[in-house]
Each structure stands twice: as C-alpha cells, then as structure tokens.
Write a structure and sequence with these properties.
Blueprint (H helix, E strand, L loop, with lengths): L1 H10 L1 H4 L1 E2 L6 E7 L6 E11 L8 E10 L5 E7 L5 E7 L5 E5 L8 E5 L3 E4 L17 E5 L8 E5 L2 E5 L5 E4 L6 E5 L8 E5 L4 E4 L5 E4 L9 E4 L8 E5 L4 E5 L6 E6 L5 E7 L8 E6 L3 E5 L5 E6 L8 E8 L8 E10 L2 E12 L8 H14 L3 H18 L2 H37 L2 H17 L3 H17 L11 H31 L5 H11 L3 H15 L5 H13 L1
Antiparallel strand pairs: 1-25, 2-28, 3-4, 4-5, 5-6, 7-8, 8-9, 10-11, 11-12, 12-13, 14-15, 15-16, 16-17, 18-19, 19-20, 20-21, 22-23, 23-24, 24-25, 26-27, 27-28
Helix pairs in contact: 3-4, 4-5, 5-6, 6-7, 10-11
Length: 569
C-alpha cells in the first residue's frame, strides 16, 4: 500500500513542483522517499551542515518510523547532499528537533537530537553520552554567546537553559518552546536568542535577560529574522494562525508591518535574499501545499504548487541554505503524506535556486564600460562608448541616463580639444627651437605648459619647463649702459675734469717744493710724497670708483665717501 502511493507520487512528478510564472527561482533537482514495503519513514525535522569537513553539506533528518506490524520507532538518518542514506541512529522516543553544531569546539560537528532528553551524536551518528538534561527537550542549539570562541549549549524545554564554563543560567518561558534562533538582532556583535512559543515570540540577550516579548496571540506557526528595512537591524517575522505575517523590531513600539496572506497560513517561514539584490524575499510553505515567494510588501513573485498524495498532506519542515555552494540559497522541503489523519510516508525535495539576474540593458553595459575607460584616462575611446551608451539609453527611454552620458561626453570633448591645442603648441615650439627662434619658442612653450597643467599632464608640462630653462641658459644677457639724466651726466663729467685739474696742480706743487728744499730736508719730503702719491692698488680702486660713478652705478655722495675711505685706509 505504501509503495503504491510512492509510485503514484513519482508518476505525477511533473506536477509536484509547478511554478505559475515563466521564470523560476527554483527548479526541483531531486526528490527522495525513504519508506520501504515493510515500513513507512516520515521526515519530521531537517538540519544541514558539513559533518565531515569535506566542504560538502550533509543532511540530517529526524524520522518517525511506522512498520506494517510492530511498534512505532524513531531514528536520526544522515544523508549525503544528494539525499542518499549514510549512517543512522535509532531511538525508541519521539524526536522533537535536530540541529548540527561543533558543540565541544574540536572542529568536528556534532548532531544535537532533542527528544525525551538531549542526545549528542557524533558525525557518524554514534551517541557521545553527554550528561542528560533530565527533562523533555524541545529544541537545542550551540553557539558562542559571549565571544570567547567557545560555544555555549542552549537547551529549550519550558525554560531556556544556557550551559558552558563561562555562562550558566536558566530563564523560565512558562510554556513549551517550538523553535529557537540565535542571531545578532541589533548588530552589536553579540547574539540574541529568539524563542517561538504558541502564543509569543521572546527575545533574550546572551545573559538571559528578557529584551522583548511580542503581544500575546494564538497558535503562532513559525519565525524567521531578516533586515527588512535596510537599517542594519534585523526584524523578526512570525506567522500566525489567522493568515498573517507580522514584522517587528525587538522593542515595544517596533511593529514594522504585516502581510495578509488572504487564504492560507504560513506553516513554514524563511527570509533570504534569493536574487542577490541585497533585499530579502519571504519564502512561505503553506497549509495548502504551496511554496510561495513574496516580496516585503507581500506581493507574490512566484508560486509552486505540489500535488497531494494522501488526503491530508502537509509540509513537515523546510531548510533554506546554499546546498551546492554556488552562492545562491536552495530549499530542502519535507512533504508529509497523511492518510486518514496519520502520516504514512514522506518526500524530500531539493529545489535548486536557478535564478539568474537578467542581463543589464545595453545602455548600462556601455555606460559602465565607458566610465572605466574615462577613469583610466582613455578619453578618446571613452567618448565613442559614451555616445553608444547615450544612443542606447535614448532607445530604452531612459532620458536621465542619456543626460548623464552627455555630461561625460562634454568632459571628454573638452579634454580632447585642450589636448590637441596643447600638442599643437608644443610641436610649433619645438620647430622654432630647432630653427633658433628662441623668443617665439618660449612663448609657445609657456602656453603649452599652461594647457598641460590644466590637463594634469605633469610629464608634458615638465618637458615644456625644461625647454624654457634650456633656452634661458643659452642666452647671454648684454650689459646695458645705465641711462642718466642729461644734467647728472654733465655734472659727472665736470667733476672728472675738476678732479683731473686738482691732481695736476698738486703734482706741479710737489715738484716745485722738491726743487727748492735744502738737501737735509729731502728725506721728510720723500716721506710726504710717499704718503700722498697713490699706490698702484689705490689707483686701480680709484679708477673703478670713477667708472662706477660715470656709469651711474653710484651717486656723487657715494663716490666721495668711498674715495675718502680709500685714501684714509
């Protein structure tokens, strides 16, 4: 009977995952059933993680096993990433949840099994015999709650219990816990604990202090977290029995909005960025065997319908994770087949994310290429591509971007015009330089240098400066005779004549005195003559002073003063 239903489900495989729109987010890659002719194996819980550190994710499922004859049992089954069976751990008690984490920080993941107590299994499904909690465990997780690089064990019963060497506390929730999440809600680097019960969502900090409790409701279905308003704080999304999804920040007045699903309730809920645009989508697995993708306003982006096999089929669990390491999240979905109110079989679907962002419009492609060329200084090529982009934007009706292209086109044109002018002036200056017309060459080099500086072409500007310096070093400046006023020149000449006459008169007097003096006075006369007669050095200095005075380098007072000092020295 069980196998007949399984075969029926496989025959209608084409209908099991039928999107209602042409472009798919997800395509069913494979499906598995684990029942046999002797017993039905129903998937109740799913967890995903890399158990053996090989870079490939394994799947762990919690099973309820119903044999054709005998007592109902339970098991934890390890599957590879394609859903094929590997190791197994059997139990006589119901399994409430499974999760995967490296509990003891030995770099090898363990499996946490919540049930009659907490069981910690190895990555090969061997019981590691951890100390019991001593009560029924509904959920269990492990995470570093105090940033000491060691994980705390968090156990959910009717309480939340934190167990580690550094953190040990218990907080009463007062009712059975359906689900726990550990996430950093406020972006402060320290995680919070989000707890779902049937009536409320509770938030605790890492020390067990209550941060927030949602308003009381009835029969909450599932909970997820995502930054829905791009403020870097995560909001809490939870689904209700009256077909709503509520979005809250973890504060009293933190209501962010609601989505009315209209005709169905969200049994399972997740929020992930499916199309790599930085904005999360909401994934809803509904009570009517529909998987729906919604935007944050509640608009349906895609819907997948699954055909029931029994008379009361439902979805048992869902995991949204990148299973094949292609940087796009996929979906594992457990379909519980129920006949006359009892689960008799299940199917596990792997829905691969095949979304590809549509290629950008040609205008955008050309524009991005042109901007890269512009930033590299390839203005001529950039101009051509900007013109192509502008034409493409105009064809697409995007006038704003066409105008943006024009701004770049104007900049490219101005640059190229200035470049052409600067190169022309430099070439002309070089020709004049080679012809020996240095004066005109310097003018053009200076003009070219100014233009190159506007273009920020330091190499060409430096070449112009070097040429100008070279020309200046080649030209020997001619000594110009100072221009004096006629009156000043006349006075200078008159002074020269007077000085000459005085010198001649002094010479005649000295000769006369020498002849009339007695012999015995010759020696003193010679001493006087030796004092008055200038030496060759003094005469040379006197000649230089006269020349400076004649050419206007010094005035009359300076000349007299320097002459006096010369003879007094």
């Amino acid at each position: 009977m069980v196998m007949r239903r399984v075969l029926l489900s496989l025959c209608i495989g084409a209908l099991l995952c039928a999107p209602i729109v042409a472009q798919d987010f997800f395509v069913k890659d494979w499906e598995k059933t684990y029942s046999t002719e002797k017993q039905g194996e129903m998937i109740q819980h799913i967890a995903v993680g890399d158990l053996d550190n090989d870079g490939t994710l394994e799947i762990v499922v919690g099973l309820s096993i119903r044999p054709l004859a005998g007592i109902q049992t339970y098991a934890v089954q390890i599957l590879d990433h394609r859903g094929n069976k590997r190791q197994r751990w059997d139990s006589t008690f119901p399994i409430n949840d499974v999760s995967i984490s490296d509990v003891n920080d030995d770099d090898v993941a363990e499996i946490l099994v919540s049930g009659a107590d907490l069981h910690v299994l190895s990555n090969t499904a061997q019981n590691l015999n951890y100390p019991p909690i001593g009560t029924v465990v509904l959920s269990a997780l492990a995470a570093d709650m105090d940033n000491d690089r060691k994980k705390e064990l968090l156990v959910g019963t009717r309480d939340v219990i934190c167990i580690s060497d550094t953190l040990n506390w218990t907080v009463s929730i007062g009712t059975q816990i359906k689900k726990m999440l550990i996430t950093d809600l406020d972006g402060d680097g320290t995680p919070e604990i989000v707890i779902l019960t049937r009536q409320n969502v509770h938030v605790l900090d890492n020390n067990g202090n209550k941060v927030w409790v949602s308003p009381g409701m009835q029969n909450l279905r599932d909970v997820a977290v995502a930054d829905v308003d791009e403020d870097r704080n995560k909001e809490i999304l939870f689904s209700t029995d009256n077909m709503l999804i509520l979005m809250w920040e973890a504060r009293e007045d933190g209501m962010q909005g609601e989505i009315d699903l209209g005709s169905y309730a969200a049994d399972l809920l997740a929020a992930e960025d499916l199309d790599e645009d930085g904005i999360p989508e909401i994934i809803v697995a509904t009570s009517k065997l529909r998987l729906e993708i919604l935007d944050l306003e509640g608009n349906s982006l895609q819907e997948y319908r699954f055909e029931p096999v029994g008379d009361q089929d439902s979805f048992a669990d869902m995991v949204v994770k990148d299973m094949d390491r292609d940087n796009r999240v996929d979906i594992l979905l457990a379909h519980s087949i129920n006949v006359r109110g009892a689960a008799s079989d299940s199917l596990l679907y792997f829905l691969k994310n095949t979304w590809r962002a549509p290629p950008p419009p040609k205008g955008t492609e050309y524009f991005n290429q042109a901007v890269e060329l512009f930033d590299r200084g390839e203005y001529s090529t950039a101009l051509d591509v900007f013109l192509q982009a502008q034409a493409a934007f105009a064809e697409e009706g995007n006038q704003e971007m066409a105008d943006e292209c024009q701004v770049y086109i104007d900049q490219c044109t101005t640059w190229l015009t200035t470049q052409t002018e600067a190169d022309s002036k430099f070439s002309q200056a070089e020709a004049l330089f080679n012809q020996g017309d240095y004066e005109e060459a310097v003018t053009l080099y200076e003009e070219a240098r100014t233009l190159y500086e506007e273009l920020e072409d330091t190499e060409k500007a430096q070449a112009c400066s070097q040429r100008i310096t070279e020309i200046q070093n080649m030209q020997v400046p001619e000594e110009e005779e100072p221009v004096e006023e006629p009156e000043t020149r006349g006075i200078g000449l008159l002074l020269v004549v007077v000085v000459g006459l005085l010198g001649a008169a002094a010479y005649v007097v000295m000769k006369y005195r020498k002849r009339t003096r007695p012999m015995e006075e010759e020696k003193p006369v010679e001493e006087v003559e030796e004092e008055i007669t200038p030496s060759d050095e003094i005469r040379e200095e006197e000649r230089k002073l006269k020349a400076q005075y004649v050419y206007g380098e010094i005035n009359r007072e300076e000349y007299r003063e320097k002459l006096r000092k010369l003879y007094e020295s």
